């Protein structure tokens, strides 16, 4: 009997998994909660590990054309003095890996273009599942249900089914909140990503192609703080008024409707993704803070490695899911934990401690930075 897999979630993890399953000729349906998958969101950075997978899925060129290849990623203090630099061109030369910054909506478009649209069913928010001898049944909030041979849960950090499977796996607050925006690139910020650390918070900006620049601003705050929620463009510009330009002007130029706010959360690492004929992937399994720029990259890696294991175990998907779990847990937990710690370091607001941090980071040899970067990018 032809196996039919249900992919729950139409984000980056779900869409990439669909493409990976098509490549190995495995039948599937992709189920998405919203009525229509639209090009929403702000910017995203796809490091070399993700781009290598997208090359194998024959979508890398489309992503590259929509975004911008980066030559360097620079961390600086709020006066504009460099703290650390990652040479992205060197990574390309030595490891064949290049980094692309792109609007999240443009990435979705590139993935959707490559997919079989007849395999997508929208308006299906999964709320529960049941497994029996005939397969796995997923139940939706509209009262309907669908049955498949197996289920891949790619429905994000707030996955109701993950909470059913792992009740104590709840989102963890990082201690800082974040605003994101997209505006026209009036500063010719070609091919370089910047992150600025200072006493008023952290600010990053990166060109994402199409003459657009994406920026984010992080500030230490209580969880779900009403004052932070109500921050305006004017409030943000005032908060970062002492930072090197073009930070303040970039904020001011951003249309109000392009401002997105949310607390930074992740999932405390777990060692369990596979549950017989159901498996968790992407943010549903291992949501991470964005400090390493690896959240979407881990989801894209998941898609490829899961398809590899399904190809190795085509007759026993539960075995494929266990093999996937065995390959992913150590690497993904390393990324989640490292990103969480880096966020703590980057969000230091005490001037003395921050000054000491910057001094130490400037002394680190380039070879150490290269080794750490290779560990982040090395697909297991």
Entry keywords:
globular; 39% helix; 7-stranded mixed beta sheet; FAD/NAD(P)-binding domain
How would you sum up the major sheet?
7 strands, mixed
Average pLDDT reading: 94
Query: What is the SS-derived class?
Result: alpha/beta
**Beta-strand residue percentage:** 25-35%
Please tell me how large the radius of gyration is: 21 Å
Overall strand count: 19
Beginning-to-end CA distance, first to last residue = 32 Å
The CATH homologous superfamily is termed FAD/NAD(P)-binding domain
- Which strand order do you get reading across the main beta sheet? 6-5-14-15-16-13-17
- Give the total of domains: 1
Oligomeric state of the chains? single chain
According to CATH, the fold-level topology is FAD/NAD(P)-binding domain
User: What helical percentage do the residues reach?
Assistant: 25-40%
Low-confidence parts lasting 5 or more residues at pLDDT below 50? none
Q: Look at the structure and give the CATH class.
A: Alpha Beta
Shape: globular
Instruction: Work out the helix count.
Output: 14
- What is the name of the CATH architecture? 3-Layer(bba) Sandwich
């Amino acid at each position: 009997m032809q196996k039919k897999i249900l992919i729950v979630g139409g984000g980056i993890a779900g869409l990439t998994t669909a493409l990976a399953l098509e490549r190995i000729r495995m039948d599937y349906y992709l189920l998405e909660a919203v009525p229509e998958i639209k090009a929403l969101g702000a910017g995203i950075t796809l490091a070399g590990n993700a781009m290598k997978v997208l090359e194998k899925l024959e979508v890398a060129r489309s992503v590259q054309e929509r975004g911008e290849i980066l030559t360097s990623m620079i961390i600086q203090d709020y006066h504009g003095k460099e703290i650390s630099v990652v040479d992205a061109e060197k990574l390309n030369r030595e490891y064949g890996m290049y980094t692309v910054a792109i609007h999240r909506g443009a990435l979705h478009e590139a993935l959707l273009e490559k997919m079989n649209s007849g395999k997508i069913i929208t308006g299906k928010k999964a709320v529960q599942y049941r497994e029996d001898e005939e397969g796995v049944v997923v139940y939706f909030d509209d009262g309907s249900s669908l049955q498949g041979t197996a289920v891949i849960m790619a429905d994000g950090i707030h996955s109701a089914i993950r909470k059913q499977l792992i009740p104590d796996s709840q989102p963890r607050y990082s201690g800082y909140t974040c605003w994101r925006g997209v505006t026209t690139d009036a500063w010719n910020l070609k091919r370089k990503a910047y992150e600025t650390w200072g006493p008023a918070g952290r600010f990053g900006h990166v060109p994402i192609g199409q003459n657009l620049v994406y920026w984010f601003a992080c500030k230490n705050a209580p969880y779900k703080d009403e004052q932070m929620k109500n921050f305006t463009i004017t409030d943000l510009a005032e908060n970062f008024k002492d930072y090197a330009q073009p930070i303040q002007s970039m904020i001011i130029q951003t249309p109000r409707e392009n401002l997105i706010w949310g607390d930074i959360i992740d999932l405390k690492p777990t060692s369990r993704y596979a549950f017989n004929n159901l498996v968790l992937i992407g943010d549903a399994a291992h949501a991470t803070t964005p400090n390493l720029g690896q959240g979407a990259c881990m989801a894209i890696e998941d898609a490829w490695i899961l398809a590899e294991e399904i190809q190795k175990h085509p007759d026993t998907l539960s075995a494929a899911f266990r093999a996937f779990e065995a390959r992913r847990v150590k690497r993904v937990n390393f990324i989640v934990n490292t990103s969480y710690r880096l966020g703590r370091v980057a969000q230091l607001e005490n001037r003395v401690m921050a000054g000491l941090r910057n001094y130490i980071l400037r002394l680190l040899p380039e070879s150490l930075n290269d080794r750490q970067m290779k560990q982040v990018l090395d697909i297991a």
